[in-house]
Specification:
14 helices; globular; seven-stranded mixed beta sheet; about 375 residues; Rossmann fold; eight-stranded mixed beta sheet; 15 strands
């Protein structure tokens, strides 16, 4: 199979979807690998590294034209829509539920979209979302601490305080991978941390393993409202798999929050879990609503591309090797995790939450495969 890697063109995106070691693994299994010139440079991998691994350096148009399996980090951008083609498998983060335009473009291209974020193992684990969730959770505290500084419009609060001065109050909404990593970082910096979730078992677990400056709360309207009123920094990390994030923090909540408090909405890739959230970039990361600073960067891990690329490709490569080795159709049929990752197959929406988000017809993935010619 011909596998391809293109340079990410989304603003401030510096990750690459395949490291030279991954290219070497594909070549060792008899596949051809095309890498766009300069694709790995922002992450610290130069073209000669890929050539030494057996890959061939090519132009972007050549990679798009010939790659049967295209490795990406982020979803295709509008300028890339015309480059997608029928039967081509694109393996990337898509977050379709946040973009009807992207959903319709991939449908029209009749490509096969395997979304990192919905690949799900039988035990409910999301293995390709986990590494970037770990990065984002830790970065959320780092960024939140920075924008709490007065020069950025924040309250002028040091997260850990100092002797004789109380530390900042950090509220983490959601105790999943993002949330637990945020809690760990904030607690380590000395903040007073409250974590809210609706899963009591998860809260019990965090209560056992986290330090004494972490407090768990069952999430409900009253506890959320009270917590937001006390917060200096809010990190919202609630995820509904493959669907739009629920709007938990409302405009009304902001009115009772502290002036200069900071909200980091890590769920912005899925539309955001704050009513006043809108996507921002690393170059222009924040804005203010009702005196509350909002940080809503959609590709947070892109700011630390070397760490993020290595963490991501550690998780994606085994699935990429399976897709290349078996072909997309067979891999979907034989691996239930990959089948859950199939969001659009030859124009058919095969992920229920995406279909519901835009009132599009839903097709079971096997039905979509049977309706088309096996290209593998």
């Amino acid at each position: 199979m011909i596998a391809g890697v293109v340079k990410e063109i989304r603003e401030d995106e510096s990750r690459v979807a395949l490291v030279p070691g991954g290219a070497e693994a594909l070549v060792a299994r008899g596949h051809q690998v095309l890498v766009e010139r300069g694709a790995g440079a922002p992450s610290g991998f130069v073209d000669s590294d890929y050539e030494a691994a057996g890959a061939r350096i090519a132009s972007a148009s050549e990679v798009w034209k010939h790659a049967e399996l295209l490795f990406k980090v982020k979803e295709p951008q509008p300028a890339e829509y015309p480059l997608m083609r029928p039967g081509q498998t694109i393996f990337a983060y898509f977050h379709f539920a946040a973009s009807e335009e992207l959903t319709r473009a991939v449908r029209a291209a009749a490509s096969i979209a395997i979304a990192y974020e919905t690949i799900e193992t039988p035990d409910g684990h999301l293995p390709l979302l986990t590494p970037m969730s770990e990065v984002a959770g830790r970065m959320a505290v780092q960024q939140g601490a920075k924008f709490l500084e007065r020069e950025h419009g924040g309250r002028g609060v040091l997260l850990g305080g100092v002797p004789g001065v109380l530390p900042a109050t950090v509220v983490v909404i959601g105790a999943g991978i993002v949330g637990s990593n945020a809690v760990k970082m904030a607690a380590g910096m000395g903040a007073q941390v409250y974590v809210l979730d609706v899963n009591l078992d998860r809260l019990r677990y965090l209560n056992d393993v986290m330090p004494e400056n972490v407090f768990t709360l069952m999430s409900n309207p009253a506890s959320l409202r009270t917590s937001l009123e006390e917060a200096d920094l809010v990190i919202s990390s609630v995820l509904l798999r493959g669907a739009k994030a629920p709007k938990l923090v409302t405009r009304e909540h902001l009115k009772s929050m502290k002036q200069g408090a900071v909200i980091v909405d890590v769920a912005i890739d899925q539309g955001g879990s704050c009513e006043t959230s809108r996507p921002t970039s690393h170059r222009d990361p924040i804005y203010e609503v009702d005196g509350v600073i909002h940080y809503c960067v959609t590709n947070m891990p892109g700011a630390v591309p070397l760490t993020s690329t290595l963490a991501l490709t550690n998780a994606t490569l085994p699935y990429g090797l399976e897709l290349a080795g078996k072909g997309c159709v067979r891999a979907i049929r034989e691996n239930s995790a990959i089948a859950r990752g199939a969001n659009i197959v030859h124009g058919h929406v095969t992920y229920q939450a995406v279909a519901e988000a835009f009132e599009l017809p839903y097709t079971h993935v096997e039905e979509a495969l049977q309706a088309t010619t096996d290209r593998d």
